[in-house]
Every structure is written in C-alpha cells, then in structure tokens.
C-alpha cells in the first residue's frame, strides 16, 4: 500500500482511545423491567449489558451511586441452566471438562448445585454455592505468582468478591487449570477449594453471552427460572439484587457503537461501506474491547470478520485505520508474519483470534459508529 493511501485511510479519523464501543445512559424515569426494555430498544440499543468490573464503575459514575437501577439481566422461567466461568471473556466449552466420575450430580436435587469446587487432583465437582470452602484466586497483574490458594472459609460468591477485590477473579478456564504453577499450588491444599465455575439461567436482554455476574450474598439469586430481573444496588459493594420485574425503578440503557454487517465484501469495500454508512472499520485496543467485538463476531455468517487492521508493506508495520498504535494483540500463533496486501480479520468461532487475510477475500465486517 502506498503512503498516500495510508494517509487517506487515517485522514480525519478520531483517536479511538477517546471513543467507547458502547455508552451507558442513566434514565431517571421509573418503569417496570419490561417497560424499561421497550424504552431502551426504541430510543437506544437495549437495557444495559454489563461485561466486567470496569462497566460497573461506569454505571456507578453515571448514576452517582444514588439508587437501585434496572439492568438488562433477567431470569426466564423456561430455559436450562448454563455453565459459565467467572473470569470475563473465558468461555465454557462442554467438550473440554474435567469432571470427577459421576459429576455433575445436583445431589438428587435439581437446581441445587450450581457452583464448582476442586479436589486436590483438580477434578471438578458441583456443589451448592452457599457452602463455605477455601478458594483459588487468579492474579493477572502479578508476574511472580498468578495463583493464590486462600485459606479462608467463604461461600462461592464471597470468594468471588474477595478475588475480584484483591486479585483479578476466581481461577477460570482449562488454560489456568492445566498450568503447572497451579498444580504446585494445589499440592499444599488440604481441603476442597472453590474455583470460577458456576451455572445459572440468567440471560441478557440483548442476547449476548457475557458471564459476568456481581450478586450480593442473598441466597435468593442462587435460584433458577425465577422469572425475576436484576438491578444494580449502589451500596458500598455496588452489588446486584434480583426483584420482581413489575416493580418500577429507574434503569440503564446502552447505545452500541459497533455493528456487524452481514454483507460479504473485500477489505477495501468493507472500509468504504463503514465510512459511508457509519464511521469506520472497528478498532480493538484492549481485552475489554476484544470481548465486546467478539460477541458481535459470533453472529457472522462467514468464518472471519474484517477489522480496521491493515499491514503497510512499504513501512513494514501493522496499523489501525483509526490511527491507534497496535499495542494490544490477539494473533493466532504464526499469524504475525508480515506480507503485502494483507489485513486483519477476527475468527468468528473458537477463541476469536486474529488472522491475516488477503484483502481480496470476502467476509462480513464490523463497523464502528461515531
């Protein structure tokens, strides 16, 4: 690609770090959950989806920490329980498990055992979330010690809150559970330990599959198929409570700033389409943005979706068309090799890694809005 064409791609684009992939709106009218959902869908995108603790802070700032406010989480009466990992962005795969023989059991009481603990040999067992056990935290920022065995007796939700406050989260996913460092930590365990596995029937209004939950310790929210809805309770923990959906409360909507286009286009046609109808091809600068964009990618009809990531052959570098530096990376292995006429695409299945693809290939794509 010629430098003049690169300038054309970058000209007039906003610095994406100043943009948000989604924006929360605090609505001070009081409505039932269903009325709030209808309002948000008519005037914005939907009731608020919350994907991590960063989102929780954004909600708290928006509302000023004043009230109990509806969000877009509800509990249908007619769906099956689904297993999730506590750590945002780690997806549960039914074909990749390590259950102990005969597990999960529910202990003969359907709906009772919705959290997981580990034996010393790292085999999984389902259990009631209200029991108190030791637990395992994961620390994303600690380079010398990633895993911590906490020898305090807590319920599963108390353990989750502790890990999120002092570390990152409860350990989650096979990658962590198969780590030799964790096995060394577990050699010192003398009790069964909670880890980040749970299941529930709660669903997000916009259909996204985010596993993030931030419940208080009320055992009522451990029930399933309750027909209730979730609200943020702005106390010192900013935790969530469930309530009957017919109660009138203020609520959060969100405006989505990214959109999946299910048209099959080459990369240059895709960027032209985004700029003509929206703003630009999407930029992904951190893990939270990756998680949000990959939710869109799951619904694509092609194996990859184009992003605004391009290789400049003459300059020998990858760049975002929004003028962001490529600092966060999510390449599949062996995909960082550089070649001319290549752009970046996210796989729509699997781990949603990035792949280089020839510009002429036709894929769905994801646009950003202003």
UniProtKB/TrEMBL annotation:
<dbReference type="InterPro" id="IPR001304">
    <property type="entry name" value="C-type_lectin-like"/>
</dbReference>
<feature type="signal peptide">
    <location>
        <begin position="1"/>
        <end position="19"/>
    </location>
</feature>
<dbReference type="InterPro" id="IPR016186">
    <property type="entry name" value="C-type_lectin-like/link_sf"/>
</dbReference>
<dbReference type="Pfam" id="PF00059">
    <property type="entry name" value="Lectin_C"/>
</dbReference>
<feature type="domain" description="C-type lectin">
    <location>
        <begin position="147"/>
        <end position="254"/>
    </location>
</feature>
<feature type="domain" description="C-type lectin">
    <location>
        <begin position="249"/>
        <end position="368"/>
    </location>
</feature>
<keyword id="KW-0732">Signal</keyword>
<protein>
    <recommendedName>
        <fullName>C-type lectin domain-containing protein</fullName>
    </recommendedName>
</protein>
<dbReference type="InterPro" id="IPR016187">
    <property type="entry name" value="CTDL_fold"/>
</dbReference>
<feature type="domain" description="C-type lectin">
    <location>
        <begin position="24"/>
        <end position="138"/>
    </location>
</feature>
């Amino acid at each position: 690609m010629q430098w003049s064409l690169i300038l054309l791609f970058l000209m007039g684009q906003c610095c994406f770090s100043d943009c948000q992939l989604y924006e929360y709106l605090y609505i001070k009218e009081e409505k039932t959950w269903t009325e709030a959902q209808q309002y948000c869908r008519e005037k914005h995108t939907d009731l608020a989806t919350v994907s991590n603790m960063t989102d929780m802070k954004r909600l708290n700032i928006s509302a000023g920490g004043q009230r109990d406010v509806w969000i877009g989480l509800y509990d249908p009466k007619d769906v099956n329980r689904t297993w999730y990992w506590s750590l945002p962005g780690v997806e549960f795969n039914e074909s990749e498990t390590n259950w102990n023989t005969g597990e999960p059991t529910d202990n003969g009481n359907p709906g009772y055992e919705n959290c997981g603990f580990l034996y010393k040999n790292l085999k999984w067992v389902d259990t009631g979330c209200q029991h108190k056990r030791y637990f395992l935290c994961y620390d994303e920022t600690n380079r010398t010690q990633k895993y911590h065995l906490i020898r305090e007796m807590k319920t599963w939700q108390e353990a989750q809150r502790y890990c999120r406050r002092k570390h990152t989260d409860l350990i989650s996913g096979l990658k962590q559970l198969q780590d030799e460092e964790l096995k060394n930590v577990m050699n010192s365990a003398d009790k069964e330990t909670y880890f980040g596995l749970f299941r529930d029937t709660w669903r997000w209004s916009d259909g996204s599959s985010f596993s993030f939950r931030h419940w208080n310790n009320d055992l009522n929210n451990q029930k399933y198929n309750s027909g209730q809805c979730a609200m943020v309770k702005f106390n010192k923990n900013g935790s969530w409570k469930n309530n009957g959906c017919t109660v009138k409360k203020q609520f959060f909507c969100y405006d989505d700033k990214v959109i999946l286009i299910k048209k099959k286009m080459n990369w240059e046609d895709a960027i032209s389409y985004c700029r003509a109808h929206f703003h630009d091809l999407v930029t992904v600068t951190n893990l939270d943005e990756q998680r949000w964009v990959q939710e869109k990618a799951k619904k694509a009809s092609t194996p990859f979706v184009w992003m605004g990531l391009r290789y400049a052959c003459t300059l020998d570098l990858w760049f975002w068309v929004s003028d962001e530096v490529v600092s966060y990376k999510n390449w599949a292995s062996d995909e960082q090799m550089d070649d001319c006429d290549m752009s970046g695409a996210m796989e729509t299945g699997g781990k949603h890694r990035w792949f280089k693809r020839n510009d002429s290939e036709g894929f769905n794509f994801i646009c950003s809005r202003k």
